[in-house]
Specification:
The chain is α/β, with parallel strands linked by helices. The chain contains eleven helices and 18 strands. Helices cover 31% and strands 24% of the residues.
């Protein structure tokens, strides 16, 4: 938690609610910590986690590179003065028009995981650097990416050879063990497959000089999503696995998103309504599912909620402000009895909250306020 209720109340008096409070110093601290714990990795911040220009500008000033998944993200970074060669287009599936746009502004590295994507890249981004993505199955990740992205490892060498024949430069292999992973063990299997692919590629005259290990580095949440995992130990173990499998000559990239921004932000909402339904107190907040708490239903994420009042805790429900009955963000949460106008803070809300918010029903997402 980067703030306290006294400071939050002061900021609310000035800006209103809902607010997303952001700590620049915490962003910088997280970036520096990752650099220290993963010294071999070149950091590409995953823009999808939080694309606010203020956040991106802090990371730009830190010297970060950027993992982009759409041309809109590329445009945002260009507006901030980021060199396109510091961007890596990692979405394995891209619209033809977006490949053209990215290539024309100077993005020169793209990810693929299938034949159709290779054909598009050869036509619309000729001679570009390309990186094949392999699938990783990881039950220890809350969000499992292997179900949607990555070719099966035995297909990788065929695709690398095809890339070469199409005039592209197959220079790397990438994978992602899944977001909010509780154990780093999946890196072992992924890197074992990677080393095998590199050896086979060498036999085919293809020099692989880059391995992108993706993200997945966890953040500590009070809601059980951390899997009792210590982020520092997780990353230290990851560094050891990298050194065990990958020779020093290889370039290593990583794509942290949640780890950089997750605990650098607190979400502040206000109680705008209160009722009792079937014996349970319902509190209606001015932020909800359709705004900054979309992940509640999208992936069954449980946000943390804190209140400033003291007293006996009662089973309660938290709902958002829209007229949709789906807009419920906590169905059974224990809180002291609240009153209209009270503030509720959801800490560690920097990743995949405002990034996926909408303005359904005319209710806007939280306003960003940088606290330092």
């Amino acid at each position: 938690m980067i703030t306290n209720f006294r400071k939050a109340k002061s900021l609310v008096a000035k800006h209103g609610t809902p607010l997303l409070l952001v700590s620049k110093s915490k962003l910088k601290q997280n970036y520096h910590t990752l650099q220290k714990l993963l010294p071999r990795c070149k950091i590409y911040y995953a823009v999808k986690a939080n694309h606010h220009k203020g956040v991106l500008n802090v990371l730009k000033e830190m010297g970060s590179n950027f993992d982009v998944a759409s041309f809109k993200e590329i445009e945002t970074l260009i507006d901030l003065g980021v060199d396109p060669t510091k961007m890596f287009y990692t979405n394995p599936i891209k619209a033809e028009v977006d490949i053209v746009r990215a290539y024309n502004v100077g993005v020169d590295a793209f990810v693929f995981d299938n034949d159709a994507e290779l054909k598009k890249l050869a036509r619309y981004a000729p001679e570009s650097d390309v990186v094949v993505r392999i699938a990783v199955n990881n039950d220890a990740a809350y969000y499992k990416f292997g179900v949607k992205f990555g070719c099966e490892p035995p297909q990788a060498n065929r695709l690398l050879n095809k890339a070469k024949k199409l005039g592209l430069n197959p220079m790397g292999i990438c994978f992602h063990i899944g977001s909010q992973a509780s154990k780093p063990d999946a890196f072992t299997t992924a890197l074992d497959n990677t080393v095998h692919i590199i050896r086979e590629a060498k036999k085919d005259g293809i020099k692989i000089d880059t391995v992108d290990i993706g993200g997945g580095f966890p953040v500590v949440y009070g809601n059980g999503h951390g899997g009792n995992c210590d982020p520092k130990s997780f990353i230290q173990d990851t560094a050891k696995i990298i050194d065990e499998y990958l020779p020093p000559a290889l370039n290593v990239f990583c794509e942290p998103g949640r780890y950089i921004v997750g605990d650098a932000c607190d979400l502040v909402a206000k109680v705008i309504g209160k009722s009792k339904r079937k014996g349970v107190i319902w509190y209606y907040l001015d932020d909800g599912y359709y705004q900054d708490f979309a992940d509640v239903h999208a992936s069954k994420w449980h946000f943390d909620f804190l209140a400033s009042r003291k007293g006996k805790k009662l089973r309660s429900v938290l709902a958002g402000p829209t007229c949709d009955s789906y807009d419920v963000i906590a169905k059974s949460i224990w809180l002291p009895e609240l009153e209209l106008g009270d503030l509720v803070i959801s800490p560690n809300s920097g990743a995949y909250a405002s990034a996926i918010a909408t303005s359904f029903n005319g209710f806007s997402p939280a306003e960003y306020v940088f606290v330092d």
